[in-house]
Amino acid sequence: MQDDIAERRYAPGETLPSEEELAKLFGVSRVTVRAAMETLGALGLIERRQGAGTFVRELSRPEPLTVPIMDLAARNSEIVRTTQAHVVKYEFTRAPRHVRSHFEAADDDLFQRTVRIRYMQNRPIMQVTTYVPEAIGRQFGPSELEGASLYAILQRFGISFAFGEQVVSAAAADPIVAERLNVAIGAPLLKVTRLHFDMQQRPIQHFELLAPPATYELRMPLKDFGR
Predict the structure, then answer these.
(1) How many domains does the chain have?
(2) Is the same domain home to 86 and 105?
(3) Do 12 and 112 have their domain in common?
(4) In the structure, what pLDDT confidence band is assigned to residue 225 with cuts at 50, 70 and 90?
(5) Is residue 191 part of a domain?
(6) Mind listing the pLDDT tens digit for each residue in 120-129?
(7) For a Cys staple, 28 with which of 13, 32, 69, 189, CB 3.0–4.6 Å?
(8) What span, in angstroms and rounded, lies between the C-alpha atoms of 22 and 32?
(9) 90 and 126 co-located in one domain
């Protein structure tokens, strides 16, 4: 219900189904539904009016961040302009198997792993996790990552992105991500994974973004290819 309200499946001012209807919909008891409604009320998402029903409250939130899918520089510039980054994890560690495979790295190779939450109007809208090889990652620290994008930081060190691959899929919020993004555990998230290479075709970054669909959109223009 929290996700449905956040993503406006239930519009502000709309009457929610009755406790009996919700119990049937979710296959739970009315006691469970009543407890859930109390939680939603405590979160400020609903308003219960005696004799009238339960209504969705108007939420104050920014418009979704919409960025172009083709132009990497433009996308990063827009994200940095409209959001603020906070580093929640910065370490040098061994990477998981799928990241090591991307870099063709040995099991004991170290990588700079950084996890950042980006905020818009003080609301968390995305989690970004990046891996870069240790030799690159030792050149800058968490203070730099609080401001500029990693794309811009690497450019300052003469490392340019020549090409890459982007995969857009979906994921469910685990307990840690759910707390960081203020969504329910198991909530659907947009997942964007990017692999970046430099001019010498060397892999330089593994990037993963997780965001609620209500806060982040990818837009790609389509051309008329004729008949």
Answers:
(1) 2
(2) yes
(3) no
(4) low
(5) yes
(6) 888 899 999 9
(7) 32
(8) 10
(9) yes
